[in-house]
């Protein structure tokens, strides 16, 4: 659909106004625009209406994807140093990837697995805990419900990393009693992350749960369904988009979490990608650049693939869950 | 357009909010606030699942309680037992359905979010940190153990190295031929049935394996580290070996006088007293390195704003934290809104491709973004200086001002896709009748945008802007990965720099390399962040309430 198919252009007034808001100088564009649509339009009019949007689009796209192309090029350039990576796509080979997996003091494969395990377990548990809480808040009326919702809203403002010192000391206390849950253990780290499960996500889910009509529950209740049957059989199936969004968002944030992970996981074998890759370039940024870039590309691929795959859900989740409620 | 029209039209966008939804649900006709229809009975499958899960939780709980009992942590034991009882009560009673759904999440929330914040509050009032991380008794024992000197003219013991269960023991033969055994954890104990070699040196004990010379060399580090206490009293000193075959007696260079609560240097005679600040100090204020944890009241807060090496930089950091957070929100929102308006056209060719490409930065892991950009912007070798600017040496990350700009640009790169998505959603949810009505009344497009769309948009987006502010206020990853907080301030010896925000400062003070860890000060800074964020959120949420009232 372009300028030569005028019938489909600007069917809603909102679009006309949007178009017009951008070139603010011409107040009377709407009428002229509509007239213009009825004949083949000269370039100037097309540009005023749409062409500039493409210019903006191209400029922003370059800004958005250049760093990604840069790191991709560096990953496939086995020169390895920062300077050597400057000529984009001057050579393409897999030297960096080979080196990445052959350094026992920096076990990249282990980091990758650790990140996946911690990320998947945490986000699955987060979704489940959040959904249970959202179900209670959305479908039941009880004392302290308003206060509970309000406190969750407030807790969102205070991320866990503020208390990183206390978390470190608490876990070091726990490791004296039960080493498997204390410092250096991924299980301990997962537990810490789950502390943030309700605060961040319940409100988002709650808004979405409210959009599922209550008459569905009522009907099921009349049929004698128990609360678990309603929860797992009806609600959970109808709110899949928000579950996907919350799961994905928490996976993204957990897999990129650095502060707490760097404090809790001290042994290189148990570290996550965020901690490990940072240590890769923390000391000598320019020497390890190529290998780091290779690691970065591999680390980013699953997250980005998941993101693009679920993009539709995310966009609808963000706009419905958070904007509207 | 009249006020009424505006109000009615504005309601759907504004009042879709969560706060009004439950009231709507409670007020629906079928539920006049009396008895609600009850849920059906639990299925057998459900009951079995519940019993199995609760059983597993209880099994774990019993294990934890036992470990707590064995480690004699009575406080933790009492709290944990209470928690276990409450959990069982919640799930075994018939009523109280909401609690059954809320309990697991709330438990984690209470321990790892609420408790740790209160714990931070407590640490902020102590001197917890390197050299001050245990009780006074531990500190006294540690001082006696670390400050050891060889007892002059003490006899040489013959020593052999034994191993049992992966730990090493030293076997001593004293000049009179008495044989004894021990290691760092187990004080010296006499052994009667040791095997001896031709020189009369004991070298074997039943149940232990004797190490040969190669093994001793291979494990040199851990063997030299063994200090065998002569008795349970640390003041009696220890035995150590320097070569695996001879050992000497060491005694504390500082002797502790329990009655006077002082340490005395055995050589110089200097007396160290408890200085009331968690350490032993001599008359000149020289302290022993190992101290203990005490409550210091407001000292950490006072230090933050009076210590000359901290005050100036800290004020700079606070100012920059605000600038960074506000500028980040403003820039990302402006760009996101502009893009949303630009691409809010059904008929724009390639709109989908633009959108996918433009949200890629949002999908890219944030910690990697900082590191990747740090390569691009690297003043010496980076792409920007070397390739785009043909070998320039502009200090994108090393000049204080440019580093701040760089941080903002990178954060714009990270944040605009989110704002773009959110603004697009909000724009599309605005009712179209509004535009029509406004245009009928003769409003121009700019006026429609400024007076109608933007205010309505702000009602639904303002809470997100506040969250975004709170997020950026603590946006650790961008700063730490891109500049590490640098370039460092010149007027302090601490590791504080021009792009440091409060949270990176907290991290560096608590876990940074170089200067010792200072958990007390770090927690005090965290509490300051906490108060700032709470105040700002409270004020701004009030403001958005006002905004909502105005518009609806």
Textual characterization of the structure:
The complex is a heterodimer of chains A (325) and B (552). Chain A is mostly helical. Chain A contains 16 helices and no strands. In chain A, helix 9 packs antiparallel against helix 12, helix 9 crosses helix 16 and helix 10 runs antiparallel to helix 11. Chain B has three domains: 80 residues; 121 residues, D-maltodextrin-binding protein, MBP (Periplasmic binding protein-like II), CATH 2.40.430.10; 247 residues, Orthogonal Bundle (MetI-like fold), CATH 1.10.3720.10. Helices cover 55% and strands 11% of the residues of chain B. In chain B, a hairpin with a 5-residue loop joins strand 3 and strand 4. The two termini of chain B are 14 Å apart. Classes of the chains: A mainly alpha (325), B alpha+beta (552).
Defining key terms:
heterodimer, A: 325 residues, mainly alpha, MetI-like fold, 2 domains, 16 helices, disordered C terminus, B: 552 residues, alpha+beta, Periplasmic binding protein-like II, 3 domains, nine-stranded antiparallel β-sheet, four-stranded antiparallel β-sheet, 15 strands, disordered N terminus
Largest interface: A-B, 134 and 131 residues
Unreliable residue stretches of chain B: 1-34
Structural class of the secondary structure composition of chain B?
A: alpha+beta
**Shape, principal axes of CA atoms of chain A:** flat
**Helix-residue proportion of chain B:** 55-70%
CATH architecture of the largest domain in chain B: Orthogonal Bundle
Query: In the CATH scheme, what's the topology name of the largest domain in chain B?
Result: MetI-like fold
Rounded Rg of chain B: 34 Å
Mean pLDDT of chain B: 81
Overall form of chain B: elongated
Q: Which class best fits the helix and strand makeup of chain A?
A: mainly alpha
Sketch the major β-sheet of chain B.
9 strands, antiparallel
Number of strands of chain A: 0
What is the CA–CA distance across the termini of chain B? 14 Å
Task: Give the % helix of chain A.
Answer: 55-70%
Low-confidence stretches of chain A: 1-27, 321-325
CATH fold assignment of the largest domain in chain A: MetI-like fold
Q: Quick one: CATH class of the largest domain in chain B?
A: Mainly Alpha
C-alpha end-to-end distance of chain A = 34 Å
Q: Name the CATH superfamily assignment of the largest domain in chain B.
A: MetI-like
């Amino acid at each position: 659909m372009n300028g030569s198919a005028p019938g489909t252009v600007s069917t809603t007034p909102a679009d006309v106004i949007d178009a017009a808001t951008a070139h603010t100088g011409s107040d009377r564009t709407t009428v002229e625009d509509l007239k213009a649509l009825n004949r083949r339009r000269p370039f100037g009019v097309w540009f005023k209406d749409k062409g500039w949007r493409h210019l903006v689009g191209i400029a922003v796209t370059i800004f958005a994807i250049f760093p990604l192309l840069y790191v991709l090029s560096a990953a496939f350039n086995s020169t390895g140093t920062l300077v050597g990576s400057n000529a984009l796509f001057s050579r393409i080979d897999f030297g960096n990837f080979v080196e990445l997996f052959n350094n026992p003091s920096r076990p990249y494969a282990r980091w990758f697995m650790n990140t996946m395990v911690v990320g998947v377990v945490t986000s699955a548990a987060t979704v489940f805990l959040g959904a249970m809480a959202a179900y209670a808040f959305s479908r039941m009326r009880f004392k302290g419900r308003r206060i509970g919702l309000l406190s969750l809203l407030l807790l969102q403002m205070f991320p866990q990393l503020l208390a990183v010192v206390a978390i470190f000391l608490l876990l070091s206390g726990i490791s004296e009693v039960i080493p498997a849950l204390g410092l250096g253990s991924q299980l301990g780290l997962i537990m810490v992350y789950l502390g943030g499960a309700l605060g961040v996500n319940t409100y988002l889910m709650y808004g979405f749960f409210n959009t599922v009509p209550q008459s569905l529950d009522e009907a099921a209740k009349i049929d004698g369904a128990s609360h678990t049957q309603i929860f797992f059989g009806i609600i959970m199936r109808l709110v899949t988009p928000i579950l996907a969004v919350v799961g994905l968002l928490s996976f993204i944030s957990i897999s990129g979490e650095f502060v707490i992970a760097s404090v809790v996981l001290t042994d290189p074998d148990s570290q996550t990608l965020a901690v490990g890759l940072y240590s890769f370039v923390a000391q000598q940024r320019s020497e390890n650049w190529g290998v780091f870039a290779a690691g970065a590309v591999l680390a980013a691929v699953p997250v980005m693939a998941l993101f693009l795959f679920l993009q539709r859900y995310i966009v609808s989740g963000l706009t419905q869950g958070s904007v509207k409620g | 357009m009249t006020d009424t029209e505006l109000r009615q039209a504005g309601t759907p966008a504004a009042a879709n909010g969560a706060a009004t939804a439950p009231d709507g649900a409670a007020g629906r006709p079928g539920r006049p606030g009396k008895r609600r229809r009850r849920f059906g009975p639990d299925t057998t499958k459900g009951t079995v699942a519940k019993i199995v899960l609760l059983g597993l939780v209880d099994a774990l709980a019993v294990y934890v309680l036992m470990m707590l009992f064995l480690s004699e942590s009575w406080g933790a034991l009492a709290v944990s037992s209470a928690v276990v009882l409450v959990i069982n009560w919640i799930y075994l009673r018939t009523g109280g359905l909401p609690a059954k759904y809320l309990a697991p999440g709330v438990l984690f929330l209470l321990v790892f979010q609420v408790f740790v914040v209160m714990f931070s509050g407590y640490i902020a009032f102590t001197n917890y940190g390197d050299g001050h991380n245990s009780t006074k008794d531990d500190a006294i024992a540690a001082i006696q153990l670390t400050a050891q000197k060889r007892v002059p003219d003490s006899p040489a013991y013959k020593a052999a190295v034994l191993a049992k269960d992966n730990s090493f023991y030293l076997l001593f033969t004293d000049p009179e031929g008495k044989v004894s055994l021990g290691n760092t954890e187990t004080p010296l104990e006499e052994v009667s049935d040791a095997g001896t070699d031709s020189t009369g040196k004991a070298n074997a004990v039943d149940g232990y394996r004797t190490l040969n010379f190669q093994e001793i060399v291979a494990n040199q580090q851990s063997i030299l580290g063994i200090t065998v206490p002569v008795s349970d009293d640390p003041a009696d000193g220890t035995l150590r070996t320097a070569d695996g075959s001879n050992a000497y007696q060491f005694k504390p260079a500082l002797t502790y006088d329990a009655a006077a609560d002082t340490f005395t240097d055995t050589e110089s005679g200097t007396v160290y007293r408890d200085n009331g600040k968690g350490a032993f100090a001599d008359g000149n204020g020289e302290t022993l390195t190992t101290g203990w944890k005490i409550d210091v009241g407001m000292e950490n807060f006072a230090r933050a704003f009076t210590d000359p090496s901290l005050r100036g930089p800290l004020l700079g950091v606070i100012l920059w934290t605000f600038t960074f957070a506000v500028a980040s929100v403003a820039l990302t929102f402006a760009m996101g809104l502009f893009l949303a308006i630009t691409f809010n056209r059904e008929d724009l060719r390639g709109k989908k491709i633009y959108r996918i490409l433009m949200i890629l930065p949002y999908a890219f892991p944030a910690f990697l973004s900082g590191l990747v950009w740090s390569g691009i912007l690297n003043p010496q070798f980076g792409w920007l200086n070397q390739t785009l600017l043909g070998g320039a040496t502009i200090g994108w990350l090393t000049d204080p001002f440019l580093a701040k700009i760089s941080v903002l640009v990178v954060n714009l790169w990270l944040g605009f896709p989110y704002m773009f998505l959110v603004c697009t959603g909000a724009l599309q949810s605005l009712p179209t009748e509004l535009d029509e009505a406004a245009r009928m009344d003769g409003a121009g497009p700019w006026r429609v945008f400024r007076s109608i769309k933007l205010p309505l948009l702000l009602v639904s987006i303002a809470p997100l802007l506040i969250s975004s502010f709170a997020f950026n206020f603590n946006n650790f990853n961008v700063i730490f990965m891109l500049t590490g907080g640098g370039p460092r301030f010149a007027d302090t010896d601490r590791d504080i720099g021009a792009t440091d925000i409060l949270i990176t400062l907290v991290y560096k003070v608590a876990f940074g390399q170089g200067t010792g860890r200072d958990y007390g000060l770090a927690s005090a800074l965290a509490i300051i962040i906490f108060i700032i964020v709470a105040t700002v959120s409270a004020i701004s949420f009030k403001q958005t309430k006002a905004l909502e009232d105005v518009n609806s």
